[in-house]
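@channel anyone free to eyeball this complex?
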Amino acid sequence: MSTPAAADILSASPPAAARLRPLARWRRRLTAVSASRPAAVGLGIILVWVALAILAPAIAPYAPNANDLAALANPTPSRTHWLGTDHLGRDVLSRILWGARPVLVIAPLAVLGAAALGSLLGLTAGYYGRWVGVVITRACDIVLSFPVIILYMIILAHFGSSAWNIIGVLTLTKAPIIARIVRGMTLDLREREYVTAAKMRGESALYIMLVEILPNARGPLIVDMCLRTGYNVIIIGVLGFLGIGLPPPDPDWGGMVKDTYGMMMVWPHMALFPCAAISSLVVGFNLLAIGLRELGLRD
Amino acid sequence: MTDAPVLDVRHLRVIYTTRAGEVTVIPDLSLSLEAGEAFGLVGESGCGKSTVALSIVRYLGRTGRIGGGQILVEGRDLTTLGDAALRTIRGRRIAMVYQDPMASLNPVMTVGRQLMEVPMIHERVGARVARERAIAMLSEVKLADPAGVMERYPHQLSGGQQQRIVIAMALIAGPALLIMDEPTTGLDVTVEAAVLDLVRELRQRHRSAILFISHNLGSVARVCDRVGVMYRGEIVEEGLVRQIFANPRHPYTRGLLDCLPTLGRDKRQAPLVPIAGQVESAISRPAGCGFARRCVHVESGRCTSGSIAAVTVDGEPRHRVVCVRAAELPPWRRRTGAVVSEERGVETEPVIDVHHLTKIYEARRRRRRFGGKRPSVRALADVNLAAARRQTLAIVGESGCGKSTLAKVLSGIEVATAGGVTLDGVEVGSLGVDARSAALRRKLQMVFQNPDSTLNPSHTVGYAIGRALRRLRDGAPADTTDGVARLLEVVKLAPAMAARKPHHLSGGEKQRVAIARALAGDPDVIVADEPVSALDVSVQAAVINLLNEIQATHGATLIFISHDLGVVRYLADHVAVMYLGTVAEVGRVERVFAPPYHPYTEALLSAVPVPDPDHDIPRILLEGPVPRADEVPRGCPFATRCPRRVGAICDDTPPPVQQLAPDHRLACHIPGPELRRMQTPLVGTSSAGR
Amino acid sequence: MARFFAKHVAFLLLTLLVVSFLVFTLNEFSPGAVARKILGAYATQEQVELLTKQMGLDRPLLVRYVEYLRAAASGDLGYSARYKLPVREVIGKHLANTALLAAIAFACIVPFSMVLGVAAGMREGSRLDRVILMLSTVVASIPEFALGVFLASVFVVWLHWLPGTATLVAGGGWSVASQLVLPVAVIVLFDAGYVVSMIRASMVEVMQRPYIRTAVLKGLPLSRVILRHAVRNAMLTPITVIMLQINYLVAGVVVVETVFAYPGFGRMMLEATLFKDIALIEAGALVAVFLAVATNILGDLAYIILDPRIRV
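replying in thread with the prediction:
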């Protein structure tokens, strides 16, 4: 096809690559990322929310749990309350800003945990094949075939839903997905000649998995991690909505919707704004994932 | 009957849009083809020959476009046609045959349906007529049981069969122009020979014009009337086949011919002369000649300023060259040496000794959905070989012969089922690489085939070599910078390379780094598994020379596995010809390449395409089925296809190993002297040789 | 063929066993806990212990588990404390409701996403592709409850075209059919967003393949290239994904059910877990897993049927 021919011609004589310092490398990565419009937009959205979350204590006009009883008479958006108040008189804007903080901590942490656990499982399953591979894959299949919502309901209702419990349960349920991806890549990469060369040097299996194979699985792994983070944000919202999320009274976007959607006929804004908040953040992660995938992330 | 050429490309200009901007890949290209003529377009990777083909059929994808010029096919300019008009031409007047036949066929559609589509769409015939046409075409391309093949899926057929089907699909509508883009690359030598002969035959019958694109000068010589040599998007020399190969006038053409290891060349008599430098990217196109920077005859000033005009060679009206110095160059002599059998010193004790090596891959209970265990595969059967110190032993054979398995057992990736391998007196055949001691691992290292996967893309060159140093060399210092620099120097790379990552390196450079890595422990034996097969011709020569040099200076034994008989003839001291896991013939390279030949060796040698149109030898084509990998033949494994099969004895009894000389053995029922009587020499019989 | 089924049925049973054991253990680990849940927080310790003994809950875990299995095999799944009915009835009723919703949704999702996915992947980078990609990404990013809220605020609050709840009780002037529109719409939008991107990705990859180039250069019209050559290959991977959506449709739609007060299986499970209705939780988990593994098997089967490279 035309594209490989072009690639041939263009790569025939590569430019000399100077050794860049770490900071310059990051700047180069950022400019590379912004080359793709979806990635740039997605990253922008995420960074905005991160900034808002960090600055929440400073910029939120009210305390998130403060009840402004006077506003109850007319909770719709006004000059004093830009996004209105909820049914208990609490300022919606402030609650949204403060609500960003647990989400932006829990979702990425859970993804990192899932990535670590999933990578280890996937590497082991892919590299060893045979027995170990089959057992791990089957176990992952079992976990994956379980409808996760029910899993969350059962576990969280039983153990209670603190932040760590949520992180734990999200890690456990997302790890198999990542394990499957990493396993697929490992199966492919372990046939590469540089792996054979490593074996001929007498490298240990652990070295080969972590140093030879894993760095080359980086691309799709990172893309998937972005997607997972987005899904985690959704799930955290869903948990809050179902009543098994973070305990009240701390603002939790899903919980906010749960408390207020019943009043949608009269005051739709109370539920709409938290919904918009969640959606925008997830859109950010999904766009970033699409953009990264397009770029075929390569360092 | 008009005189207009079937294909007339005039001043074609092709531009690609890339992240680095717009790149003119083909600045100005013209060529023409008459009906029934075969034109070979030759060049290395990146020269743009595939781009020419894709431009003609207007399939450049989203990143490419035609920036100027005309492409006239039967008088119509394709650059001006819209999609609807193009559709009537594609498949009907112009057809294409591709490089990878398996990937070019739809895996979920039967072969028959894919064939029948063409006449059904273009000529609006009914299914029954289409089916008959398809079956007729399949027999024309010499496929056995055409009706049965129609119902098969592509993955059920061999590579050679698939390519014949692609050819059938191209010819079924009787096109005026047939474009073949590397049609035999990736096929075994004997299969390739059969396909090339088929193409010649079909050409006579169908009178299509053929544009044959290849990097293999030999196959072009066999099929084509005229040849065009491409470099960096331009045709630098063009003429009749005989003219080009006997009297090349462009330095690049000469360079290509000089660095080709053909069957008659030996490393001692006629060393390969690589072309300096490497193919430069199309991004920076210099003023003047594109080849100037690598040319040995360059004269700065004349060659580097202004565009170079094409000149016609004296006395050869159809032979044109784009070079200012063409007429001044000395006459070209084909480099062959007389086949000299000299004594090369005492044969020393073998460093590596393979005795009765057998490797059987057991049936594994794979995840077979619908029953049936995979039967066991006999990859190696009673193989006996030996290589002495400072010698090069080449192992040659086609796919399925077991050479890769042999490499794996030697290196410890696989373990022998029976028999053994002795390395410096130590039995290693049953030792997997994990079980071997560090000292053993140090002694035997490997160089692999694919430069793109031989180095870890996430590690720098310095890390890769340094790690090998630390693991393989005892007492290696913690800081390996010096060691790395020294190794890079041995493989003729700058020390600054250590900081680079593989994707910044060219194929040849990557392979050199791989060689440096293998040298880290100063091994006694280097197993090279097709190390140059994936490299461009001009780069191959340099790497081959490098291997040779390293062997001499480091005193290592080189076990060189290849399917390329020319390289083997050039490089090896001893050669073993393998077929289906057995050694058909083994011995000193001069003896193996001269009669008496094992019938398989004979067929191989006759099949190799040689870039010499005067190379006229009886072609021996192998008919008959290749036994399946899981069938263990009772007698000689070659019996099903052997043109010299004598009778039932060949099917029932394994052939005896005849010791024809202290260093020459072959396994055949026909006695050696009788073979010698029956056979003619196949190497070094060029009537144009000087 | 027989081997295929034997292996997968064995896997199914194994999974069911493992899961049911885990759930059982989780819920009934401490003997006192079960009795306490039944009696409530205000019961005295004596009462708890009495009930425990009465129900035989002080016997070892495994014994109780085996008994449970035996009972389940004979169809007796226990008694729901929340609904005050045999578990079998409760599950049956709610599952039927969910099945209705799932069937309609599935019938909409499959053709809808196939058309969009193929149209998008056909010409990667075209305007149609970008639009579909962006839309499907955005829609898949909105959690179902948010989608429900958005749609409800438009169609219920603002336009008054549709009812806001779907209790399946025809009343207040809204027919049962009209009640289903919004829940189905939300499910279809949310799920299709994901399925479209999968089909699109597969289609994009197939269009790069050499055999598509062969088909085009044979002079075949684009429609034939797409329909006969590309789609069949492109559907190989998404088929399994689509089968897994059934999985989601059964249990994952709990959110939608909650928003619209639909009496479905997911909502039943939610109530059960919140209420600590143990028998219902255990049985419900079993049903969910059974469906999940069964759809897995269906997906594998479909893949085999479609890809001759495996079959032949």
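from a first look: Strands of chain C lie at 79-80, 85-86.
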